[in-house]
Specification:
By secondary structure, the protein is an alpha+beta fold. The protein is built from 5 helices and 19 strands. It has one domain: 2,3-Dihydroxybiphenyl 1,2-Dioxygenase, domain 1. The chain has a 9-stranded mixed beta sheet. Strands 2-3-4-1-16-19-18-17 form an 8-stranded mixed beta sheet.
């Protein structure tokens, strides 16, 4: 196919997650993170920050089993906070709630906390450094996994008596990170067909792509094994996630590429559903997410 670059104002989200017990999940998302909860007509539950659009949509699947190791699907959905101060407030809230944090890293372009929801769905909560401070590597960026500066982040709270009031206005779903079965096939799909630009490679096992020069809207890895199968349908985990094009023309350009590549699609309200080569489902839509 001819080279193609996706519209620079493309964004991602919301992500749809299957959970085994809605109330257990909300004890974390609403009770710990303070996310705003609303019920949708299809019975799913939308989770948002302040008065923003949905970041995550939960689908209850009673009796769903944990996602097996060695399968493709969600690595994490990454919630982007607007400032480092808000990252500090969230870290303090997680500590006060004694909610386990699985890890924390400085990626040079951002600072991030890693944790799982009660069903084991992976989450990243992070704040970006200014784009002007991102280290460059050719046309891409340089990201690392350095130790997290706990003291420096918490120092943002000095003189800040504000109680935690949930995730703030301006919070978005910053990126998605997926386990895939084959990195070459994933790159051919996300970059070659959809038009995301490669920003960094981590050896032969991970790749980061984006729109508009962001450090990454999508991470892809084979850390669950080359050729890993999809998870079983009765497992918790990722159901689908949205790629948001800014307008109808930008959406039509990507859909045209998808159909020219022979990728099967399913018409949905205001967009189309398709699957990547590892059977991870995504929905192409135009315009901002709505509640």
């Amino acid at each position: 196919m001819e080279p193609f670059v996706i519209h620079p104002e493309t964004s991602v989200g919301p992500a749809r997650l299957a959970v085994a017990d809605r109330e257990r999940a909300l004890s974390f998302y609403e009770g710990v993170l303070g996310m705003r909860v609303s019920q949708r007509p299809d019975g799913s539950t939308a989770l948002a920050a302040a008065d923003g659009p949905p970041l995550l949509i939960l689908h209850e699947r009673p009796g769903a089993r944990p996602k097996p190791r060695g399968t493709t699907g969600l690595y994490h959905a990454a919630i982007l906070l607007p400032t480092r101060l808000e990252l500090a407030r969230t870290l303090r809230r997680l500590a006060e709630a004694r909610y386990p944090i699985g890890g924390a890293s400085d990626h040079l372009v951002s600072e991030a906390l890693y944790l799982d929801d009660p069903d084991g769905n992976g989450l990243e909560i992070y704040a970006d450094r200014p784009r002007s401070a991102w280290p460059r590597a050719g046309a891409g960026v340089r990201m690392t996994t350095d130790p997290f500066d706990v003291e420096g982040v918490l120092a943002e709270l000095e003189g800040d008596p504000s109680p935690f009031a949930g995730l703030p206005a301006g919070t978005t779903l910053g990126h998605m990170h997926l386990h895939v079965a084959d990195l070459g096939a994933a790159e051919a799909f996300y970059s070659g067909v959809l038009g995301f630009e490669v920003m960094q490679r981590f050896g032969p096992s991970a790749l980061f792509v984006s729109a508009g020069g962001y450090h990454h809207h999508l991470g892809l890895n084979t850390w669950q094994g080359q050729g890993a199968p999809p998870p079983p349908p009765d497992a918790v985990g990722l159901r689908s996630w949205d790629v948001r094009l800014p307008d109808a023309d930008a959406l039509a350009a990507v859909i045209s590429r998808v159909r020219a590549a022979g990728v099967p699609t399913e018409e949905m309200e205001e967009g189309v559903l398709l699957r990547d080569p590892s059977q991870n489902a995504l929905v192409l839509r135009a315009g901002p997410a709505r509640g």
